Amino acid sequence: MGDEGELPESEGFEELIRYTIPGYALGLIAGIFLDMQGYQRSPVGQWLVRTLSGEGESILEGIYSIRQRFLGGASTMAEAYGWGKLFGLAVPWIIDIASRLAGVNVYGVEGFYIPYFYALSDQIGANISGMLFLKRKEGTWVGAVNKYVHHPVMVASLAIIVTVPFGLLLLRIYGFSPTTQTFTALETIVANLCWVPPLVGWYVQRKREF
């Protein structure tokens, strides 16, 4: 796993785990409400539901990072992780709008990548931000890459980024289509595994305490 300094107890990933369920809940509630109001295929409704389901926790994690910055103290990987997720928020909005304008069938197989970016663009941002944090900490790219491949949170994050799109593609191939806002929320929630890397970080911290 690397040396003892790779994941100090003060990293703060346990704070990030707490933000996942509220995001899921808000997205699902919004989806059910919009379906009840007759907006099953509203593009604006899908934007709202996917943002809450896929990025709700990122908004809260971004607030956590802002709070940590104002409180002062040493920067942590968790803070860098939160900043990266906050900066990745708008990417899926642009991809969604561009896809619709280009005539992509967002309900078909070819639209599988849209929920992926809603669910994980913030994770991609967090991964990049984490790498930059390690670069600043280590001073060289070689040192940063060495720490990266031995950092359980970063490795878990990369694994999710790479594997989730295949799952979404298979889901669409086998006939799933987000034809209601509730289905839209559920598809995004299933793809949004952003809670896994902080959970890994929390587990490693706890393991080292005993």
Topology of this structure?
Elements: H1 13-17, H2 20-36, H3 43-71, H4 77-87, H5 91-101, H6 113-138, H7 141-150, H8 152-173, H9 181-191, H10 196-209
Helix pairs in contact: 2-3, 2-9, 3-4, 3-6, 3-9, 4-6, 5-6, 6-7, 6-8, 6-9, 8-10
Structure commentary:
It is a single chain. This protein is mainly alpha-helical and 210 residues long. It has one domain. 74% of the residues lie in helices and 0% in strands. It contains 10 helices and no strands. It has helices spanning 13-17, 20-36, 43-71, 77-87, 91-101, 113-138, 141-150, 152-173, 181-191, 196-209. α2 runs antiparallel to α9 (181-191). The longest helix is centred in the N-terminal third of the chain and has 29 residues, at 43-71. It is globular and about 50 Å long. 43% of the residues are buried. The model is unreliable at 1-11 (pLDDT under 50). Keywords: Membrane, Transmembrane, Transmembrane helix. The chain crosses the membrane at residues 16-34, 155-177, 183-204.
